[in-house]
Amino acid sequence: MTKTVTRFQPLGRGTSTRTGASLLDLAREVDVSVESICGGTGKCGKCRVLVATGEKHLSPINESERAALTAEEVGIGVRLACQARIVAEGDIVIDIPELSRRGHHRLLASGIEPEVELAPAMGKILLRIPPATLSDIRADDDRLLELLHSEAAVTANIAQGVHQLLPKAVREKSWEATVTLFRGEELVRIDPGDTTGNLLGVAVDIGTTKVVAYLVNLITGEIVGTESQPNPQIPFGEDVMSRISYASRNSDGLRKLKEVVVGSVNALIARLCADAGKDPTDILEVVVVGNTAMHHIFFGITPQHLAQAPYAPAVRNSLTVDPGHLGLDIYPFGKVSSLPNIAGFVGADAVAVLIASGLYQDDEIGMMIDIGTNTEIIAGSRERLIACSCASGPAFEGAHIKHGMRAASGAIERIWIDAETHDIHLRTVDDAPARGICGSGIVDAISEMFRCGILTDAGKMRPSDRGDRVRKDADGRNEFILASAAETEAGVEVTITQNDVQEIQLAKAAIFTGASALMRKLGIACSDLKRVYAAGAFGTYVDPTSAITIGMYPDIPPERIKFIGNAAGSGARMALKSTKVRDLADRLSKRVEYVELAMEKNFQAEFAKAMFLPHRDADRFPSVVQQRQA
Amino acid sequence: MTKTVTRFQPLGRGTSTRTGASLLDLAREVDVSVESICGGTGKCGKCRVLVATGEKHLSPINESERAALTAEEVGIGVRLACQARIVAEGDIVIDIPELSRRGHHRLLASGIEPEVELAPAMGKILLRIPPATLSDIRADDDRLLELLHSEAAVTANIAQGVHQLLPKAVREKSWEATVTLFRGEELVRIDPGDTTGNLLGVAVDIGTTKVVAYLVNLITGEIVGTESQPNPQIPFGEDVMSRISYASRNSDGLRKLKEVVVGSVNALIARLCADAGKDPTDILEVVVVGNTAMHHIFFGITPQHLAQAPYAPAVRNSLTVDPGHLGLDIYPFGKVSSLPNIAGFVGADAVAVLIASGLYQDDEIGMMIDIGTNTEIIAGSRERLIACSCASGPAFEGAHIKHGMRAASGAIERIWIDAETHDIHLRTVDDAPARGICGSGIVDAISEMFRCGILTDAGKMRPSDRGDRVRKDADGRNEFILASAAETEAGVEVTITQNDVQEIQLAKAAIFTGASALMRKLGIACSDLKRVYAAGAFGTYVDPTSAITIGMYPDIPPERIKFIGNAAGSGARMALKSTKVRDLADRLSKRVEYVELAMEKNFQAEFAKAMFLPHRDADRFPSVVQQRQA
Q1: Cβ neighbour number for residue B13 with a 10 Å cutoff
Q2: Which helix (H) or strand (E) is A583 found in, with range?
Q3: What confidence tier does B31 reach under pLDDT thresholds 50, 70, 90?
Q4: Which residues lie closer than 8 Å to B82 by C-beta, 6 or more apart?
Q5: What's the rounded mean pLDDT across residues A332-340?
Q6: Shared-domain flag, residues B522 and B581
Q7: Measured between CB atoms, which of B139, B158, B321 is closest to A160?
Q8: Which domain holds residue A181?
Q9: With a cut of 0.90, is the ipTM above it?
Q10: Within 13 Å, how many C-alpha atoms sit on residue B520's CB side?
Q11: Are A6 and A95 in contact (CB under 8 A)?
Q12: What is the mean pLDDT of chain A?
């Protein structure tokens, strides 16, 4: 009997007796989809797996594998899953590195989430209250607060409005009642009888393009449900800067932007509750993260000054407000809290990512990169943390790219070009007919075109000597045909223009200039980075090798890259579950040093050098140089 | 030249050269109206004054004076102002005791107010904030809070909603701004520039029948204005119990009662602001007092359980809420605070009266009596304080009295009956034609009828042997004609019925039973009371001698009675002006022991004895016995 065990993030166990099957097939039987883009020809080298046990039951290593793998890899038992075949029955244990998994995108969509000891801000206590009698005529508030003091050693005050609930709540179930305390000191709710089993919270990540809400059971820590929808502010401005502009230029702009996003959170909460059979008034707390502009707008604070030097936010500290102050439809005397911001363009979402990544407690130096229209980077370790924000623009979201699109069904997300024939292998989201190209596809395209010599290191497209994929567009500029109308099932032509290449160069240069500024501040080289945490949807989908090849990520061994998915949401949930995490966030947001890149000496010169593929100083990308020389 | 100086509460100085004038005339020249009800015949004895200087310029003491004054009084120079006449020019200095002043009512309408060191909950600080620059990119909140910490040693947090004001406020006047702190720790307001000269608060006394609001300048302590109006809840129920019933029986009752009283406070504030040329948003804090039911309703808390044994209030502790929570139109991030309650029928108003009276700091034992539909009594000294509430009913407000009316123009407020002829001397409010009788008039009437033998000690009316003032009514019960239609200018007959007498007996018995229960708890006799503080409108208007004669007040020398007027309003203003007063109120409300009279042993028996005039145990009223024997 053949046993397949995946040891990196084990997903299950399966058995197979089918000799002749490839390791690709074997992995599929335990629901692991191993990456392979070259159609199983052994050429793209993306399906590397490590055979831990049962090497003798497999076909011997072949020519394709020898070409794709380094000698070191061969030495430790790495195989290409599409090439290695089962030749005899027996136990086989394989490790499938994260990088080789096709499924990791989907798996990580909700983000990694380190375990957190439950210590939510809201806590419930069941009380059996001595009834009011003519010989004990204390007021209801004294009766309750004195009992809390004597039974639970709690010195509490009663929140505004909750006094109105007291008389009925204490008497309705024969003087048995459950109180809810916020941070152990503010009595925000009292229910008749025992309701200690019901304690719900919602974590919200307000992204510029998407709002995600998680309903969390704060007794068990379990995620009860997840709902998301596009940020309804998009019609007022695609990106953060245009929304700031809208809020600043229209007298009613801020209010409108606030209202639609609050409405969106309300809608998500209503859906979460309907699905879970709960009432929105069961929700005691909402914890919100977002970039500084989203944060300010959500709380009704003008983001105007974020767009003007010196880009000072109005609020850095974490906030806690009443739901009614925002118009949020949850338990009316509950709380809405935010994580703190760091700077004008490093917001509460970055703090959440930092917390979810664990970078702040690493002994060795690492880097967290959350790519978006603004890319936030935090580098350092437990000793010291430095952050910056890079204006990387919306190219990775498909904007300003001729055939760019979001990573929706039919978007080209993976590209491999055969270096010899320049044949192109594509994969689309949902394997649907190609309709356009998304961010990870564009990065793959630039990387592959550069690897195959179609792009110079200056990003100039030159006619291929193999095939006729490069043509002149109407303006006489070169254009690379990724898929001709004939090649796509949908009959749609998808090309990469010279302008597309430049957009990506600008975006990746912004990111690398930021990353290298932080490394310079820390006095380290790329090779000193022991870990890079790639956050967010794009960071999860983009191929790290491609990202290194074009000079976007620092040149580190790709296995040092850890995908952490929507870590902003994870961090928000962690903060919802534990006040210790919030206190940590408060400390971190004060501790993280912020670098204003515009103030950095040589910023323009550094940026210009980073426009090259991978970089004007090619020795900063030794692995890329080595690959091209190979 | 004749000089008149009044030394008790000096009101002014005047001169008179008119020999032949009485001291009554002399006092009038310096705008002091000395009480005299017998028409200047020297019989009522109410116009006692003490001649300090210039006795030799006066007529010798006459027969009427000798009859009205004790030998001791004559010895120290007391005269009847209506009898003593100026016979020679020269300096005359007279002291006019409070009891002999007719004007003291009006003077005390706003209540006495011990001086308070200004320490309001709201304080302003002018800040010159270091501007945001590319080399100082701190967030606005950090910039402000760090400056407050370094410049003013204040560790503050910013109130919900105030963050929205920050960016504009700090930048508008070149980074000069004024912050307002609540209790030195919550930043509730920020204004551009220097607004430290403007700090307003409002104190409100929500009485069952009247709502009074005082606008106070919290920089100077000065009362800027006073406004009052009838409590608009009156149509929902004349007294507290009927309003509690309305709130409890109608699903929307509490909301309605709350809305009208909040609307009333808003209207008073709007009037105060209009008169003072201020905007309601200039008002940073409102401090509210009221009886426990008024308090609960104002804060939207059901008063239902106040009407059911064991009469436990929902809330004893002082409250602080946002204006928006109540719908109060002041500065939206200001505060609305209440003083604490003591018990279901001893509310925040009683705490305010206690504070204004100063009883809590007296070395000697005293008693505070605030007469109303419920009469609150607090007895004790700095050592120990005990409170009770007596269901004295609305008779003193003219309710349930045949010709009863409020103390409005034309109400009979003073009565003196000539013991020999049974001729009646009346005085009405505003000296207007008599239309009915108000509380102080009824007490005088019962007292005088008893003194002249028209009432037995059981309160039974018997035909007068002098005059034909007692007649049978339609039911064959006796009725005393106070003023026949022919005698009143308005042609209105005003009588005292046997039923009226009983109503007053019930009311005064309730009060005395409460007072004597407290004295019993303290282990003291009436004569141990060194001071009785008479609070409220009725307490100010009622003649203390009459009140003692009918057995309502404990039998103490009348000069020990101190009128403190609307001391609830005074206490509210003191609390508005100083957080130390509020802290004191919090301590007092916990310290004052509450006695539930219904739980007292022998309550019914004590009450029955107190129904007598002055009391079944006549030796508890030695001065009354002595007077009747005289």
Answers
A1: 12
A2: helix A579-591
A3: low
A4: B22, B23, B24, B36, B38, B40, B41, B42, B47
A5: 98
A6: yes
A7: B321
A8: 122-192
A9: no
A10: 15
A11: yes
A12: 90
